[in-house]
Amino acid sequence: MAEPIDPSGLFATIGEDGFTRLVAAFYRRVPHDDILGPMYPEQDFAGAEQRLREFLIYRCGGPPRYIQARGHPRLRMRHAPFRVDQRARDRWIELMTAAMDEVGLTGPDRDLLHAFLDDVATFLKNT
Description:
By secondary structure, this protein is an all-alpha fold. 64% of the residues lie in helices and 0% in strands.
């Protein structure tokens, strides 16, 4: 079994602004996406953006605001109401990869974050 991917040092190099720009670039794509867009309540895109941003900041070594506000991530439980199949998982990664391109995330930081997100997306599959 492979060791879990540990992105906890990424906040030091990507920073709060980098994660803010990355997640904003991702969420600019989601509302118009035919697979992911319908999964989000239209009135909660801003909330979803904030939750993902705070989760990534926390998980990548930044301030623990996500944990302070929401407690343990419980990602599988929180995503259980949504049909996350291989197609949705792959589209999520596709949009996040495009967001990384847009914000210019490159090199080892990108590789590590991409590997972490790839693992998380696979973990969240429920169908």
